[in-house]
């Protein structure tokens, strides 16, 4: 057996447990963990019981009693640690719109339910991996840690942020089991975007709608300010380092069949600026005296968010009657394409699927960013379907099996890579 390949007994055990994986997923789907409210106590209890039955040590890290986070550890031959991360909660659903049971139903090779592909399918696959290691008596070459968290869908503080702040994560690498495939193309997500969310407020002068010249329209002022921000910042092309350009190039290739090559390239070459909401005015026959807009601005990894935000503040200050009331921001993060983690996941997934695995940036950002900022090299990888958050969301039996095979293989590829 090559040093970077798992023993056949382990992979055989994963493949033999496909039906168990399906049953495990149906059990996970039976717990309604829609967020809000995001109550995950029952599913956490069930997963904790499963680990306990395997003799795997677990620990709860809790900020909100209704939203526990669960840690489980399988000691390895090395104190280097591979962290598998996933989340319990799901987005809401309208059961009346579904043809299948949103709390779990198998139909042929498909398993339907809210969270089937985002991301209870990955949780089921990870539980299968844990079972295979324990029940075959296989000691992993690196320590395996499983972090199943709450509140991911609303980016809530009781979830992963609580776990990170607790200091209990000391991993060398992390793989998040989010689905990273689209229209038959598979990928590992190696980067995410930075963001600026800001609230603009405009002041005007009220007047009757029949004599608008006597007033100052706050909505007009606000819209003019938004257009100026779009004009001054949305058309300025990024200067990206070669390492980021390599990620962008592969990302464009991945997204081009869906978006078109030019649009996909622009998505990373320039900021995206979305006017998410605009409010103002009391009636159609009045000149509004105040208005508010909320902007969502995304920046390719490697771009300095602070510099962009500084420029936007200066721009807003030059717009009469405009104030920035509230700002939240983040910096995009990434893993180098030649890092041991990216190489290991790409090669493991390629070997299992027989397909090309694109190494791409996400168009947004999530828990990977939190973990990278905590000093843990992190990627996202998961096989599934294009039905994330959709009606009749489903995953497949093949995706469950292949995810488990990839996740089971990774400890060996990382151990064989040497170094971090």
UniProtKB/TrEMBL annotation:
Keywords: Hydrolase, Metal-binding
Protein name: Succinyl-diaminopimelate desuccinylase
Molecular function, one GO term: metal ion binding
Peptidase M20 dimerisation domain boundaries: 191-316
Statement: the UniProt record of this protein carries the keyword Metal-binding: yes
Pfam families: M20_dimer (PF07687), Peptidase_M20 (PF01546)
Superkingdom classification of source: Archaea
Lineage of the species this protein comes from: Archaea, Methanobacteriati, Methanobacteriota, Stenosarchaea group, Halobacteria
